[in-house]
């Protein structure tokens, strides 16, 4: 099928700012759909039907797909493929049936105004996304570009930075970039001086830690135990680092954290990359409250929490790429249910501190193979007028990989 869908990125300067191909596409389209602001940038074109994007937003895609095969032009902000409607349409329409004509994105214009190399600056959209997603990116010296949700977003960002001890950070708000209403506001996060402004804005952060504030938490595995709210039921720092190394998080992978406790493993899994996903399964309500607090404070608000005990609570969950059994390895059916749900080629790691738990791991290794490791860690502690080594409880760790679908499995009795 010939392309019937054209997505045109338009800036604040309207039709005058479009290239020849994009201008011809808009002027010649029999049907145009876009936001009211985008449609308002066009001159009157006799015979052209215009449709404001409906609410709820998702119904607009259904409207467009219902016209498949007839010419439709969609207006979008800037670069439609950068956190835009073009990317969403490309997931629904074969690429051979559409063409995308982009304009400079708002973040490209912001980087140009600031003189920031865009390839070195993380970009975070805040539309419909919890502000807590900003936490992992805030470190001393970091530069960030945020897409505001509305005019109140800069004040909310400033409050988060102050609470984190980054009130000295410099904030620059760039509104209506590329058009006649372009405006730039600047000030420190501490005591942000400006009232709510335009909804269409990019917030540039030059993160600076206040005196006495630690630089920030690493995104590598092994955060200090006191970075988490917990009641003692936590995979300790050193064992957690080894556990996550064996789980081997990759962008887009889904983890089941079974018997999650305070959620330390699933939270660090998600902090390793913004595309990592996790489900924390925990039976106790007080510990689920710890998980809720920790996911907000450590910047992974997308962590899903499931109430209940395994194996029953695992029913209906999306198939995982990796499974961590931090509690319940001795409960009948838990390990088998996790292994059965694990995708081919997926990783399973189970930890145990009791003899019974260790015996269960030995039995599982006999069936599935993998590595069985004992981790012993000692910490220097006061001993009279000197110091000595105080050993922590050793942890036994089973790490196994499920064979790929086309790989025969050696099943031992």
Structure in words:
This protein is of the alpha/beta class and 413 residues long. It is 24% helix and 24% strand. The chain contains eleven helices and 19 strands. The chain has helices at 20-28, 36-39, 59-65, 85-90, 106-114, 153-163, 237-247, 264-271, 285-297, 334-341, 355-368; strands at residues 5-10, 31-34, 49-52, 72-77, 98-101, 123-125, 143-147, 170-175, 183-188, 201-206, 254-258, 277-282, 304-307, 322-325, 347-352, 371-375, 378-383, 386-391, 395-401. The strands form four sheets. A seven-stranded mixed beta sheet has the order 13-12-11-14-15-19-16, sandwiched between helices.
How far from one another are the termini? 56 Å
Radius of gyration: 26 Å
What gross morphology would you assign? globular
**Strand/helix succession:** EHEHEHEHEHEEHEEEHEHEHEEHEHEEEE
Sheet having the most strands: 7 strands, mixed
How much is the average pLDDT? 94
List low-confidence stretches: none
What count of helical segments does DSSP give? 11
Order of strands, widest sheet = 13-12-11-14-15-19-16
β-strand number: 19
